[in-house]
Amino acid sequence: MTNSPNLLVSPTSSRSVTETVNGSHKFVIQGYSLAKGMGIGKHIASDNFTVGGYQWAIYFYPDGKNPEDNSTYVSVFIALASEGTDVRALFELTLVDQSGKGKHKVHSHFDRSLESGPYTLKYRGSMWGYKRFFRRALLETSDFLKDDCLKINCTVGVVVSAIDCSRLHSIQVPESDIGAQFGMLLENMEGSDVTFNVAGEKFHAHKLVLAARSPTFRSKFFEGSEEDREEIVISDLEPKVFKAILHFIYRDTLTEDVDSATSSLSCMSLVSDTLTAKLLAASDKYGLERLRLMCESHLCKDISVNSVARILALADQYHASELKSICLRFAVENLAAVMRSDGFEYLKENFPALQSELLKTVAGCEEDCSSGGKSRSVWAQLSDGDTNSRRNYASWEFQFRMYVKGNELWGHVDRSSTAPTDPKELSSWEGRDAKIASWLLSSVEPHMVNNLCRFTTVKQMWDYL
């Protein structure tokens, strides 16, 4: 038997690629002067952000992290906020120059050679940063501090390694430009078959494009009485709002002036007058769900103690469910301050049903706290401030109302159940009335307990108060 010739086998190849997965976060510290004095080693934390599959946070120490420095410096660190072991990463911290001169203070691992390689964080809570990030006296007279506000930008690059075969032979596919192409169709007005008259300004468009994007337009053009009309009058929108709607329908993006209008908002009482708020209303009218979410995202960035009530009203009115949920949660977490705002009175006068929904949310969070939840209790918030006002009538009466309404117990506050005269016997008194009375007796001033205990029904307690 003769030996068969050796078979030629094509060589295989592979490549190990080590690179960084980068992500950035902008952290605004408003009220710097009020944060001073919180104590050495105590920090203000940014919201968590995700880069490379891990969560991160920025820690700002207004009084410094090192006791030996005696609050001479502010400290800034980037912390690993999720579980992880030996996470290797590059970091960059930038203190933003707010004068417009671009003279930022930058500490960066990027674009330079590191003798010992990337920084390794051993476990959750590990940090990288500077105990002596900036001398505090100099910071407070610099262009980095403006209107009692600091801005810190952070970039994290998580080091990852992988075996990559595909990159040896690859064809680059460009990003989709369908939005730009449809946008040119709108700008050139080529083939347009419908004209909109908005306060005297004319907009040319294409019925098929509008119908494909909006169920409202589809109904108007193919199921309603406006199928054959070549000009349609829009009387309930401003030209700039309708122009922004067409821009979104054709390009699937927001106009640049939406961003600038939202970011320059100075008086939150005028939030309903912003272009973003008007687009939110229009998205609800024309069934543009993605536009609605984009507007929700923009308005979410402007939620504050003074604005939350009005943004909540907008969200409820135009079915922005995610924005509404965030507003309710923010209001609960900052209830004491929100109650003192003009927006809360606005909600009480104009949207009483929505205020009741807020109270129900508060009551639900109170139960979470009482069962071991991490959120700060509402009563703890309402008790903040000077000693004389900690348990004033407005505070506990408000909480009693929202507790009862929030747990749908109002129907149980009646004359059907009697209360024991001794508060110690409340534990044996079954039913929801007992829960209400027990809460009430523990909330009022001590000298009022005896007065309440002489009543035989919860209703009598309530009427007395």
Automatic annotation (TrEMBL):
Gene3D superfamilies: 1.25.40.420, Apoptosis, Tumor Necrosis Factor Receptor Associated Protein 2, Chain A (2.60.210.10), Potassium Channel Kv1.1, Chain A (3.30.710.10)
Domain BTB: from-to ranges: 192-258
Pfam families the UniProt entry points to: BACK_BPM_SPOP, BTB, MATH_2
Residues of the MATH domain: 22-156
InterPro entries named among the record's database cross-references: BACK_BPM_SPOP (IPR056423), BPM1-6 (IPR045005), BPM_C (IPR034090), BTB/POZ_dom (IPR000210), MATH/TRAF_dom (IPR002083), SKP1/BTB/POZ_sf (IPR011333), TRAF-like (IPR008974)
GO BP terms: cellular response to salt stress; protein ubiquitination
Pathway(s): Protein modification; protein ubiquitination
PROSITE patterns for the chain: BTB, MATH
Domain of life of the source: Eukaryota
Cited function: May act as a substrate-specific adapter of an E3 ubiquitin-protein ligase complex (CUL3-RBX1-BTB) which mediates the ubiquitination and subsequent proteasomal degradation of target proteins.
Family: Belongs to the Tdpoz family.
Name used for this protein in its record: BTB/POZ and MATH domain-containing protein 4
Species of origin: Acer negundo
